[in-house]
Structure formats: structure tokens, C-alpha cells
Amino acid sequence: MVGTMQAWVESPLQLLGVLEHAGLEGAGIDAVARQPAGFASSPIVVHPRAGDAQLESTAATLHRLLERGEANESRRAPVAVDIALERRVMPAARFVDGGDWMLGDPFSGQVQARLARAVPRSLTLVDDGAITRHLAELLASGRPLLRPGAGLGHSPLVRFRRSLADRASRVLRDLAHDHRLEVTTYLTPDDPAVEQLRSIGARVRSHRCDVTRTMGHAAAAVPAGAVVVLGTAAVVDGAATAASHLDWVAEIARTRLVAYAPHRREPEWMLRTLRRIPRVHVLDVPVPIELALAATQRPLDIVSRPSTAIETLELVLRGTGSTVQLDPMKKVLA
């Protein structure tokens, strides 16, 4: 495994981030599972976390696309994906002390537990959405790597998680100080978060979702004339009530056909309720919305609650004439 970077991803967007990083590097990728212990045929070996249906489906979909040669034909080197690995636990034998790591979520308990026992020679972070901005603030200030609202209370478990988060922050800051921390992000070079990361010594590179666009499904699942309404995890997370979200979708459907793209964490009972609303068509989209809509040949109208997807879709759909609306704002992607 000499010279191989080990990547651990826990969400579909993180997997896309690894692909975008590989596109910038011109590197090949293998997502490896159930392979011999010494298996490593590419510069980046991706280990997806098991248990997320959309992550597993996305990995399989990308593998099929690349295996048939239907994507990435114009890039410097093929992005070869061999999807076969599903692990519940971050494999310690791959993420060893002094190795080259790539991570999608430095707030992950599994990641922080591993960083408490092993320190990589180099570490590359890829986006897991707008939380990259929160990460930058914490690293710049030296605070523990805890998600917003986490770490409250004084129970033994909370204290333990805070200790892991504090250790992770110190490890990442030390790596950045030694110029061994790299971040690949969709955020623009002039974004304050990028400037914060660079201020502590991290190397930051911005991508424009070019690889995602080459693999896109071109909105094939979206009926003609429908407005795409993005699903949300806000109800599951307790940030919104189910009733308010359902009313919001129903209000849009009063005047237009709605193509509802579920969030990967929305429960089935919510989707069953949405299907009963007149003029609402719930899409069967087993991949992230960025991949589902990328490469569209027609302008799309998209409505969303506050979400990282607002920013990523602006990149994926630029130049298509599509619109992204977040009440009361509307942006045309000319």
C-alpha cells in the first residue's frame, strides 16, 4: 500500500468530493471491498461506510458509468471506480500512523477515535457540505471539532466526545502548521472559510464539480414542466415540524406539478404522506441530487429549504439557464 491514499467516506457528497479531488489530481480511484489485505491498485483507495443506502447506490452507479466508459472521457486520466467495499467501522489496518489519509467528515466519532490513536503523514479533507465553514472557524480558533449544538452537558459520554474533538482539532492544526493538511472544496478561493484554513497553513484547492457534471443523470427522472422541490433532513433533525414541511410542499403543488427529490434521511412515512398530496410526484432518486440533475439539457426550476445543495447545484447547473429558489430569493444560473 506504499504511496496509496486511504479515503474514508460516510455520505454520497463526500464520495463525490473524493472524485472531484481525483479529477484535480488526475488520479485513479478504487473503492475496495472484500479484497485481499494488501490490495491497492490506485493512488486513492476509497472505503465507504456501510449502512447508508444512498451512499452504496451512488458508489455502484458511479462504478457502472465509468466501467462502460460513459464519463470522464476528456479528463487527463481515467477515474476508475471499483465498488465493492462496505464497512461499518473505519478500518484501522488501512488508516495507520504515518499513512496518507483522506476524510470526508472530521466531526465523525469514528474519525476522531482513529485520530486519537494514529496520526497520518498527510491528511486531505473533502467537503461534506457547508459545514466546511464551521470546520474552518473551529480550526482557526483552536476549538474542539464539534458539530453546531453538540458537546453540551456534563455526562461522561459528552466529556469523552469533547476530549476526542479537542484531540482531533489539535492534530489537524498541527498538520496544517506543517503544511500537511489539504482541503479540496467547492467553496471559492475568496470564501472567508478558505482564507481561515489558509491562515493556519492548510493548502486549499477549489473544484467546480466538473467530474460530477461528466457523470450526471441529466434530470432523466424529472417530468417535463415540473418544479424540483428538494427534500430535507430538517424534520428528522428537529429543525422543522412534519406539518410545516408538508404544508410548504402542498402550497407549491397548488399551482405547479412538483417533482419531489427526497433527502436520503427522510423516513418512508414522510414520503408516503407526500405521495398523497395532489400534483406531487416523489422521485426515485438513489443518488445525490447533484448527480441526478447534472448534465441536464433543459433549464430546471428548483426550490429548496436552506441547504448545502443550493450552493452545489449552482455549480453543477451553471450555464443551463436553470433557477434555484430559496424563498424569497431566486437565482438564475445563466
Total DSSP E strands: 13
Main beta sheet: 7 strands, parallel
Number of helices: 12
Low-confidence stretches: 32-41, 72-84
Morphology: globular
CATH topology annotation of the largest domain = Rossmann fold
Tally of structural domains: 2
Name of the CATH class of the largest domain: Alpha Beta
Description:
It is a single chain. This protein is of the alpha/beta class and 334 residues long. The protein is 36% helix and 16% strand. The protein folds into two domains: 5-212, Rossmann fold; 217-333. It has helices spanning 12-25, 53-67, 109-115, 131-141, 156-177, 192-199, 210-214, 234-237, 242-253, 268-275, 289-293, 308-316, and strands spanning 5-9, 29-31, 44-48, 100-103, 122-126, 181-185, 203-206, 227-230, 258-261, 280-282, 301-303, 322-326, 329-333. The chain has a seven-stranded parallel sheet, with helices on both faces. Strands 10-9-8-11-12-13 form a six-stranded mixed sheet, with helices on both faces. The longest helix is centred in the middle third of the chain and has 22 residues, at 156-177.
Top keywords for this entry?
12 helices, alpha/beta, 6-stranded mixed β-sheet, single chain, 7-stranded parallel β-sheet, Rossmann fold, 16% strand, 334 residues
Question: Topology, pairings included?
Answer:
Layout lengths: L4 E5 L2 H14 L3 E3 L12 E5 L4 H15 L32 E4 L5 H7 L6 E5 L4 H11 L14 H22 L3 E5 L6 H8 L3 E4 L3 H5 L12 E4 L3 H4 L4 H12 L4 E4 L6 H8 L4 E3 L6 H5 L7 E3 L4 H9 L5 E5 L2 E5 L1
Parallel strand pairs: 1-3, 1-4, 2-3, 4-5, 5-6, 6-7, 8-9, 8-11, 9-10, 11-12
Antiparallel strand pairs: 12-13
